[in-house]
């Protein structure tokens, strides 16, 4: 895991100037070393900050050239199947001089060209320069775990792992799109991560599973998607038992190859099904007496605390447990730095809790962490997916299954299919609902706190579509995994882990799992009134039963409602009474001032609604203002 950057243009900057401008803003991503490389023609300048994970010697320094000197790469990430690829390339006659996966990418490109991307199983963002053709080949992994941002102009092309690095370059201003920002605040999966254009007007990004070739002489470039998921008929025909067996085998292998490291490896453990499954599988790959460390964020004395679920996993897996207690006081004190490292507004205080867990791992000397992110979106982990499940069954004509399962869904998950009262409320015209909110001092919807025309546009542009090649459930899971909700969560995980120079690896974000899961019938995923049915069935005999059969989905969420009764409230009052907020052409400041008063009077649930304008204004102050 590292930080990468580059500038391409006609003698615009020396390598020393590139180092001075960009690399200090990426040091947290790679504290173990730095390097730059410039082409003979002085048009291409590549930079790298290193976090040493594989082959800790100087042989792993980047930018790295292949043995011929023709190709040079700056790379961030991990190719988990690099050992298998290395062996295959050696059989083809290629010779290796390091123990890094970086060299495997270079040799794979030399052997297979752009087709090498189809062979990689990993998380990555890289830029590979061909000194003969003077073209730069860039790519981002299938899920978009690693970022690749770029700024394209008529005389210069720049790229980097983070916004703050690009914004350090002359001519790239932190001008941002306020409406795009509001879309992200209204729905964290919209506006900020799923489009080529980012919130900053001068910065774009490669999307998940995209590649780019830049002609460094003309600065012309083309972008294409090198991988997409298509449902496969032979997988749809599997029996439930065979599907569960294949899923267990693939997940086990996904965990196994993510254990490869020359530095200590541990795991995040929330007590939820996903991270617990990973920790339980890991014990199969380490000696029964071998030490393994897990890291848990706790909120004792609140409904948000999941320690009673984490304890049986810790006991069964015989791991060394470490616990951190994130607090409102800590967030208030660290807010500016937290925002600086995250670069964009985050969806809730959960991301601060994640930030604290990664810091704890750093304090304990564990560099690499496995985590359960990605399972909820791929496997149907949220109860609201039952709405799409029912729709998929209806379209398939599964009337008998619907007759049997609908009452059971309503009993186990009362809110999953939208209660009638809420349905009636949501059928009222938006203008009337907004008027009632302002008139009666009720409601928590962020849209009520926007100017009317802005609110209507945000609501319209944040609507979900449908991917025609999938059924209704798989369409929702596909979108949330590859272009919406998970894409944003991956940004949070990248920035929070890198803030503390930790590498986070996600077994559920193995594309082989997605290719299996999204080909299966909907009842394999959520049938028999089970969220994440495949995972639950595959973990029989592996995961403690009280965890495997817990039906309530509890996200890693601090008690944010009570946090806004303390130090965060004073910060929110300052930000929401600032001149910029009160004179905003987008926000309805008086509505939010009334929200503050309602919160003080005891409507603590408003702590969740208040977060969005609070973090948006804090971001303008602590990130944009600092850039």
Give the topology, please.
Blueprint: E1 2-8, H1 15-21, E2 33-38, E3 44-50, E4 64-65, E5 71-79, H2 82-91, H3 101-112, E6 122-130, E7 135-140, E8 149-152, E9 157-160, H4 163-166, H5 178-186, E10 204-205, E11 210-215, E12 221-225, H6 233-236, H7 240-257, E13 265-268, H8 273-282, E14 293-297, H9 307-317, E15 320-324, H10 328-342, H11 350-363, E16 368-370, H12 375-379, H13 385-396, H14 399-412, H15 420-427, H16 430-440, H17 452-461, H18 472-482, H19 485-499, E17 503-505, H20 511-517, H21 522-526, H22 533-538, H23 545-548, H24 560-563, H25 567-576, H26 579-582, H27 589-600, H28 606-624
Parallel strand pairs: 13-14, 13-16, 14-15, 16-17
Antiparallel strand pairs: 1-3, 1-9, 2-3, 4-5, 5-6, 6-7, 7-11, 8-9, 8-10, 11-12
Helix pairs in contact: 2-3, 5-17, 7-20, 8-9, 10-28, 11-19, 13-14, 13-18, 25-27, 25-28
Keywords: Amino-acid biosynthesis, Asparagine biosynthesis, ATP-binding, Glutamine amidotransferase, Nucleotide-binding
Protein name: asparagine synthase (glutamine-hydrolyzing)
InterPro entries: Asn_synth_AEB (IPR006426), Asn_synthase (IPR001962), ASN_synthetase/amidase (IPR051786), AsnB_N (IPR033738), GATase_2_dom (IPR017932), Ntn_hydrolases_N (IPR029055), Rossmann-like_a/b/a_fold (IPR014729)
């Amino acid at each position: 895991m590292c930080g990468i950057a580059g500038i391409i243009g006609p003698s615009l900057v020396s390598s020393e100037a590139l180092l001075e401008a960009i690399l200090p803003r990426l040091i947290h991503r790679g504290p173990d070393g730095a390097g730059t490389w410039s082409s003979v023609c002085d048009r291409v300048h590549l930079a790298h900050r290193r976090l040493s994970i594989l082959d800790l010697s100087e042989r792993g320094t980047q930018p790295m050239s292949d043995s011929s000197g023709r190709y040079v790469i700056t790379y961030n990430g991990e190719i988990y199947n690099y050992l298998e690829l290395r062996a295959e390339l050696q059989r083809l006659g290629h010779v290796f001089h390091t123990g890094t996966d970086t060299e495997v990418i270079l040799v794979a490109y030399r052997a297979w060209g752009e087709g090498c991307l189809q062979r990689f199983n990993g998380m990555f963002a890289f830029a590979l320069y061909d000194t003969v053709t003077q073209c730069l080949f860039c790519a981002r992994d299938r899920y978009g775990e690693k970022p690749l941002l770029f700024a394209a102009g008529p005389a210069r092309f720049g790229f980097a792992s983070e916004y703050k690095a690009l914004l350090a370059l002359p001519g790239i201003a932190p001008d941002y799109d306020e409406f795009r920002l509001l879309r992200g605040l209204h729905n964290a999966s919209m506006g900020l991560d799923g489009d080529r254009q980012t919130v900053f007007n001068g910065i774009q990004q490669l999307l998940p599973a995209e590649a780019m070739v830049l002609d460094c002489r003309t600065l012309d470039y083309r972008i294409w998607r090198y991988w997409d998921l298509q449902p496969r008929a032979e997988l749809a025909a599997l029996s439930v038992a065979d599907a569960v067996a294949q899923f267990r085998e693939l997940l086990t292998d996904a965990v196994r190859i993510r254990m490869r490291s020359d530095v200590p490896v541990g795991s995040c453990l929330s007590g939820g099904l996903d991270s617990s499954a990973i920790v339980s599988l890991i014990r199969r790959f380490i000696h029964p007496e071998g030490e393994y460390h897990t890291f848990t964020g706790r909120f004792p004395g609140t409904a948000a605390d999941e320690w009673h679920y984490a304890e049986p996993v810790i006991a069964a897996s015989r791991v060394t447990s470490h616990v951190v207690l994130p607090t409102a006081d800590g967030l208030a004190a660290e807010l500016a730095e937290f925002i600086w490292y995250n670069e964009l507004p985050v969806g809730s205080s959960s991301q601060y809790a994640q930030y604290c867990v990664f810091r704890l791992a750093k304090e304990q000397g564990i560099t690499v962490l496995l985590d359960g992110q990605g399972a909820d979106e791929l496997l149907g982990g949220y109860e609201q997916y039952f709405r799409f499940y029912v729709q998929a069954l209806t379209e398939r004509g599964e009337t008998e299954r619907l007759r049997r399962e609908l009452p059971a869904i309503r009993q186990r998950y009362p809110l999953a299919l939208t209660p009638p009262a809420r349905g009636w409320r949501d059928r009222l015209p938006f203008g009337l609902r907004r008027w009632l909110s302002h008139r009666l001092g009720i409601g928590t919807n962020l849209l009520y706190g926007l100017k009317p025309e802005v609110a209507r546009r945000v609501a319209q542009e944040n609507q979900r579509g449908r991917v025609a090649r999938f059924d209704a459930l798989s369409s929702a899971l596909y979108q949330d995994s590859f272009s919406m909700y998970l894409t944003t969560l991956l940004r949070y995980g990248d920035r929070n882990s890198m803030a503390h120079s930790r590498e986070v690896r996600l077994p559920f974000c193995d594309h082989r799992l997605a290719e299996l899961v999204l080909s299966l019938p909907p009842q394999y995923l959520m049938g028999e009134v089970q969220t994440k049915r495949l995972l639950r069935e595959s973990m029989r005999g592996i995961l403690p039963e009280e965890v495997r059969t817990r039906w309530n989905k509890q996200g890693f969420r601090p008690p944010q409602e009570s946090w806004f009764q303390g130090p965060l409230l004073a910060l929110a009052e300052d930000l929401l009474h600032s001149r910029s907020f009160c004179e905003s052409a987008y926000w309805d400041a008086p509505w939010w001032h009334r929200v503050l008063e309602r919160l003080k009077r005891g409507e603590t649930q408003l702590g969740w609604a208040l977060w969005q304008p609070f973090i948006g204004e804090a971001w303008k102050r602590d990130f944009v203002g600092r850039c």
